[in-house]
Structure formats: structure tokens, C-alpha cells
Amino acid sequence: MCISISQVSRLRIHSFGSSCCERVHGWIKNSSSLKLLDVRASSVDGKARWIRRNVSTTTQGSRSNTKSSVLGGTVPVTRIIDEESRTKVQPFGNLQQRLAQDKDLSKLLTVIVSDLETTGLHRKNERIIEIAAQDIAGGGYSTFQTLVNPGVVPITNAHIHGIRNDMVCRPEVPRMEELIPIFLRYVESRQKPGGYVMLVAHNGKSFDFQFLINEFNRCSYEIPHNWLLLDSLPLARENMKSVEPTVKLSSSLEALADYYSLTREGDAHRALSDVLLLSKVFQKLTIDLKLSLSDLVLRCHTASDISAAMAKNKKA
DNA sequence: GGCCCTCTTTAGGGCCTT
Question: How is it regulated at the activity level?
Fold first, then answer.
């Protein structure tokens, strides 16, 4: 079951509530960010009406016959996915059991795996064009995915992810300043009362977290102080080194998926596909390295740590 | 950019992220 925010609005929110889990229903029903989407939709033709915000991936020319077929032709701009209903399985059972055994931290911590697609590799000049995240505990409405409108910044690496300017530079695709409060609401909906969030990304310290911090700063937001940032790449390197000390095995997400014989859903270098894969890889890594939740917390960074390093580098 | 490795440490190349 896959629910897009635009579909929620189209269906009338109050009648939709009974089918949602309570937390997500609560923030959707009361969300000011949803009003933002409505205003934006209304501004397209000056009429106040709900619209479905889909972006067609059907393309003409060099790319994407393959991609379009894989993605099913269209994808919603922003959506929260009921992964539990979609997969009919508990994909992270082992980690859930381990979290449950850690009685103190498991009551406080929400682990969310994330991935970004961007207009390029430069941390300062490029922009985010797609975000996906998944609460590793699974359950209903645990997954978030959205395209992001980068404004005037051109996409020069569409050959990597297949996302082109004409797909995201559209009025119905939210800009980052509109999206941040929506993303914050999603994270809050997964958060335990008075708890902390561990955001996991592959090569996050050098890439994803720097992009997020820059975008939050640009839009006059701060990364919440109860967020911990965990880079899964050092875990992968440590694990692969322990597997084969004399030969340097690749620690890329793709190589890890091959090593663990994991199947990818969707296309590589699309945020949701990478998040679903990293969620599985992350679980395998924590098991192989015998890392407790406490161990993981000790390996986390804070946004202020990374911001300070970025500022130091900027001066240098 | 940050990290790791080595033919290193007063450095440089490769990996990983898009």
C-alpha cells in the first residue's frame, strides 16, 4: 500500500483517518505543511482545489524506457509508504529483536535510514532533488519518499539517477523550504516520546549529512538537537576488512548488496531503492560486527560536529 | 570532503557519495 500526500488530500483527510496509524494520521490531519501543498496547488491556475501531484517518468530520447517500465510510468512527488502492507513481511525482525533486548535505548531511539539524490557531487553548490527515508523498525507508514525542486540549479548528472530538470522543475514539486517541515513531521511521527533519532546514511558524514545541513541552513532551519547522524560507510569498511584483511574489498552499497546476496527493489541511484537496500545492508552489518545499539550511538556524529568541520574546512 | 592505505607521516592516491 502506497499513499502519497497528494492522494491523502484528494480523498478528504477526515474520511481517510481510520485507515492510518494513529501517529501519522495525527500529523497529516493537523499538518500546516499540508496546507503549503494546497496553496501551491492552488497557485497553478488560481483556483483552490486539490490536485494529484504526479510526475511522469515517461521520457523521450536517450533515457528511460527501461526506467519508466521499472517505475511503472509515474511516481508520486511526495509519499509515505505503508511498507508493512506492501511487503507482507517483517523485513527487519532481527534488528527489532536486538533493539527490544536493549531495554533502555530501544525505548528512546528511532533508527531512520536515509538517502539523497542531488544535482551533483559538490556539497556547497549542488542541490537535493530526491529524498527517501525508512524507519528501520518497519510497520505502517514507515517510509518517506519525495522529489525536490532544485530551482535554477541545473541537473548535470541525470545519467546517474535518471532525474531530469523537466521532472523536478515543476510547480507541483515542492522546494526544499516547503519540504523541510514535511520531512520534520514525518520524523516526528516515527519518534518515541522524548526520544532520539538516529539518521543513517552511506557515506553520510562526507556527503548526505553535509547536503542536509547546508539545505537546512539555507532555508533557515536547524537540524533538531535530538538527531544523531550515523555514517554506515565506516561500518562497511570495518566489516569488509575483517572478512578479507589482505585484500581491500569494495564497501560501496552495490558491493555490499552483492556480498550479502540482497536483491534491490527498483533502480540503483534512486533514493527509495537505495534506502530499502541500505536498510537491509545496515541490519547485516550490525549483526556481523556484533554492534549493540549503544555501540552505534557511540559511533554517531551530531549536526554541530559536522557543521564545525565544514566551517573549519571553509576557512582553510 | 573525509577517510583509509602505503611505495607514508614534511604525501599522495583511491574509494565512496551524486
Answer: Inhibited by free nucleotide diphosphates (NDPs).
